[in-house]
Structures are given as structure tokens and as C-alpha cells.
Amino acid sequence: MHRISWLLVLLALLAGACTKERIKVVTEPARARSWTLDSSLTSYNRILLTSARQDDSTLVVASNTALWYVRPRGLNRGINGAFLQGIPTYGYLVAPTITPAVGTILYDANRLGIFLTASPISNFGRFTYAPTYSTDPNTNKAFPLPIQGNSGYPVVDGRYVLAPTEGNSYWQLGSVLRVGPIAGFRPGESLELKNTRLFTLTPAPAGARFVQAGYFAAAYHHKFFVSMGGQFFRVDTTGRVKAFGYSPVPGTNAYVTQMFTLQNRLFAVGNSTLFVSDDQGETWAPLLNLSGTNLGLLTFHNVGAALYATFQAQLWRVTLSANSLVLKELDNDGLATNQITSVNTCGKYAFVTTLAGFYYRDTASFQTPKRDQ
Questions:
Q1: Which pTM value belongs to this model?
Q2: Is the pLDDT of residue 233 over 50?
Q3: Which end of the chain has fewer surrounding CB within 10 Å, N or C?
């Protein structure tokens, strides 16, 4: 009887040992209840300018010089990336435009880099666009520098790129570039310029001029929206232009510096007015007077259907109540004095890029209000 008992115990121990041997333990990063620095990026690589979710398991993070592909299950373990540019040059703090398929980056005043964003990137997955200028000695021949962190050289539908280039006080020339795969290569490995459609931005009303108010451009509803020299325009992918004047609403004067979406409505931030469009940017109406508020200082970030706003190291969740924006400041413990440049979510984590590193926290605590509220 004793012999049988010992045999049963021995068999149970052996079975347990075999079971343990077959179990594979997959370690994940510890849940971050406050913002935690990803230690993979060091030195100059920590000057990050933007991010974009490629899918539910991959986040693309970009500086002026490189892309990194972040996977939430592999934080702090090194990040495979792609080289974009060598050294800081013209507009090196201008964020690249990153979409799931195609991105753009300013190389210098006269060259625009256009590249595929999917990992891995080959040398055939990019090209440089250098515009052909006129011989007019009175025009400014250069790509304009964006005036806001979420602006740049936008991409529509992964195929069209807006490239304003040459202008003076009365008009601005540019091109809508159509890009696509090189014949004979797989679409995810190659990219080239297919054709260009020229356009001219002319101030409205007739006889008006561009003023010193900078450049902003973004893509919404398969179209480009451009604020150039205080004038506001809509440009479609065929190069057709609709001019609005000194603001989205004729008779007002509030040059656009940002745009965002919320509750299926399109918004434009003027220097003193918040405008709204309910027909995808064809017509606009003033919504809020921003005079005397700090709303014009915020940078807005769409994350899926949600909207966030940042100012330096501060972060807010933005909602719409009636016709007012409601801001709830979120906990930024761990960010210290870092300047936030983008906000995103991917997998089980929320992420921010800053000018001093890449930070993450679990989404369960992302909406935690700031403690002093």
C-alpha cells in the first residue's frame, strides 16, 4: 500500500514538472500608472516630433531624422527603425507628416522627401521632390515653414501630397503630387512620383494680398485645407481651389492655425475665433470667440474619435457640450517639463512624444484627472 502511494506521489510530481516545462511565459511591460520614459531612445533621437498608429499593434514614431516602429508588447527593448535624414537642416523641428501608407518630410527649403511608412522601408520606398521654379526674380522660391506643430505637407488617401512652393504678395504656386508604386516592384516596397497637378492660390477678394501670417496645411475628407499668408483655401486632389478670404467666413479676419474633428464636425482655429463646418469644409460658421482665452495656445490632437489638447507638458481631454469646448486636464505625472508633440494610443497603452523622449502609460489610467483638480 505504501509502495503504491509513493508511486502515485512520484507520478504526480513528474506530471507537474512536465507541465511546467511546456508552459511558455510571455513577459509584458509592467503596467504604467504614470507616464514612463521608454529607455530605448537616447541622445538626439529623443527629440521626437510626431507619431501615428499604423494598426492595433504598431505605432510609428518620428523625429526629423528617423522613424521608429513601436510595438506595445516590446517597450524598452530597442526599436527597429528607418533612416530619413542625416543632420538637422531647414525646419528641423517641423514634424514629418505620417500616415499609415505615405509620409512627407522637409529636407531643406527646396526639397521635400516622400516615403513609404510601412516597416521595413527600402531605399526604393522613397523619393525627393524638387520643384521647378519660374525665372521671376520677385518671387519667394522655397517650401514654406509650418507655424503649428500639427501642420505640414499633408497626404490624402495615401496617394496625393500637397506641395506649395513659389509665391509673392498676390499668388502662390504649388502642386498636388500623385504618388504610387514603381512598376515591377511590390506596392509596399516602392514609391515614385506619378504626376503633378499645378494650382495657384489667389487671395480673395480680388485685389487682396497675402500678409505675414505663416503657413498651415492639413488633410480632411479627401481634400487639402491651406492657410497661407492669412488667406484660407480648400484644394482638391485635381488641383481645383476654393478661396475663402482672410478666414473661413467672409467678412471676418482670423487666419487659421489649426484644424481638428470632433463629433463628425470639422473645426478650424483662427487667431481669435473657433470656426465649425457641418458639410466637410465647404461652408463655415463662427462658433466661439477665443479672445481673452488660452484656447488659441493649445495644440489639438485627434486620436481616433477622441480629441486631446496639449500645451508644453500639460494634457487635456476635449469634449463638445452644446457649442462649447469642455477641457478636462489629465494627470501628467512623470512628464515633468517635457514639451508634448503628439498624443496616441496603440494596444493597451497611451503614448506621447516629446522633445525629450518617448513616454507611455496604460490606457486604464490615461483618463486620470490631474491631482490638483
A1: 0.87
A2: yes
A3: N
